[in-house]
Amino acid sequence: MADQIDQKAVKELLPFLSLNARGDVKSLALDYILGLSGSDSGKNFLNQNEEYLRSLLELTRDSNSNISRDAFSTIVNLSAELAISDKLLKFNIIEPFLSYALKKSSQHADKVAMILSNVTRTESGCREVLKVTNMSEECSFYNIVEILCKEKFNPSAELNYLATFLSNLTQLQESRDYILDRDRCVIQRLLPFTTYSASLVKRRGIVAVLKNCCFETRSHQWLLSDAVDILPHLLLPLTGPEEFSEDEMEKLPPDLQYMDDNKERECDPDIRNMLLEALLQLCSTKHGREVLRKFNVYVILKELFNWEVDEKAKKSCENVIQVLIADEPEPSMQDLKQVQIPEEVKKKFDEEPQTNVENL
C-alpha cells in the first residue's frame, strides 16, 4: 500500500519531474518514479496523486530521448491498471498519443501503442478513440489499418500493439461496421496475418479482430464469399500435417489441400481458441453451417480435437463439431441466435465481442 513507500521523499521529487528541471536530477527523479510504477504500492500512490501523472505526461515531450522513453515506460506500467488507465483519459491523451504512434519518425511509438492498447480495454476508452478518429484525418481509422498492415513503416518501432489496440476498438459496433464495410476492403487486408510468424502479439490482435467481426451475422454470407474468403484463413492455423483420403481432400478449400509433412498448427492456445470461436459464430447462421459442411471443415476439426491439449481450446473445438454434425434445425429456427435454445449453448453465441489485452 501507499504507506509502504517514503511518501515524503517521493513528494520531494515532484519539482524535478518538469521539462524545466536540470537534466541530471530530472533523470534520477524519473528513474525512481519508474521503479515505483512497477510495484502495487507505487501504483497506488501515483494513482492517488494525480500531479505525478500530469508531470509524467509532460515529460513524454522532453527533448531528451532517454527522459521521454522513461516517462512513456512509466505510463505503460501505470496504464496496466484499469483505475489509472481511466484516469489517464481525463488528460485527453488519445489524440496526441495516437498521432505520435502513427508518425514514421516517432522513436517510442511501440510504448505509445502499448499505452493505447491498455486504455482501450474499456468501452469508454474505445469511445474516446472514435471521437478522435472521426474528426482527425491524421488519426483516422484508415491510417491505423494502413500503418498496421505496412511492414517497417517506422524504423524504430514494430507497432505490433496496434493490432491489440484495433481488436479492443472492435468491441464497438461502429468499429466493426468500418472493418466490414464492403467498399473499403479492410478485413481482406487483415486476413493474411492469421499466420503472421514475426509477432505473436500482432497475430493474436488481428485474430481477435476477425473473431469479433464474426459476431455480425448479417455479414456472414459476404465473409464466406469469394469477395473475402475468410474460411481458409481461419482454418489454416488449425490445420496440421495429417493426410486425408482423396474424397475428403477434394472437399477442403484449395488452400488447405495437401499440406506439407512439416505443417505446424498455431502454437498459441488463446489464438486457436479465438479461431474456433470465430468458426462457432459462423455456424450460428444456416448459410455459415452449409459452407462449413460443404468444405468439409469437420475433418480438420476432428484431427485438431485429437491433437489439442489445451482444455479451453479443446472444448471450443468440440462445440463447433457438435453444431456441424447435428441435424439442421427447422426453417423457423435456422438462426441460432434468434431461437430458444439451452442457456449454456446460447451463451456461446451471444457473448459480446471482448477485449483481448492482458495487463502489460
Give a written overview of the molecule.
The protein has 360 residues and is mainly alpha-helical. It folds into three domains: 85 residues; 124 residues, Alpha Horseshoe (Leucine-rich Repeat Variant); 103 residues, no CATH class. Helix content is 58%, strand content 0%. Helix 2 packs parallel to helix 5 and helix 5 runs parallel beside helix 8. The two termini are 21 Å apart. The mean pLDDT is 92. It comes from Stylophora pistillata. InterPro entries: ARM-like, ARM-type_fold, Hgh1, Protein_HGH1_C, Protein_HGH1_N. Belongs to the HGH1 family.
Backbone shape? elongated
What is the CATH topology descriptor of the largest domain? Leucine-rich Repeat Variant
E-strand count: 0
Just name the CATH architecture of the largest domain.
Alpha Horseshoe
Pfam families: DUF383 (PF04063), DUF384 (PF04064)
Domain Protein HGH1 C-terminal: 278-330
InterPro entries: ARM-like, ARM-type_fold, Hgh1, Protein_HGH1_C, Protein_HGH1_N
Protein name: Protein HGH1 homolog
Short structural description:
The protein has 360 residues and is mostly helical.
Write the layout of secondary structure elements.
Layout: H1 7-13, H2 23-36, H3 40-48, H4 50-59, H5 65-79, H6 82-89, H7 94-101, H8 109-119, H9 123-135, H10 141-148, H11 161-169, H12 173-179, H13 187-190, H14 200-213, H15 220-223, H16 230-235, H17 246-251, H18 269-282, H19 286-294, H20 297-307, H21 311-325, H22 343-350
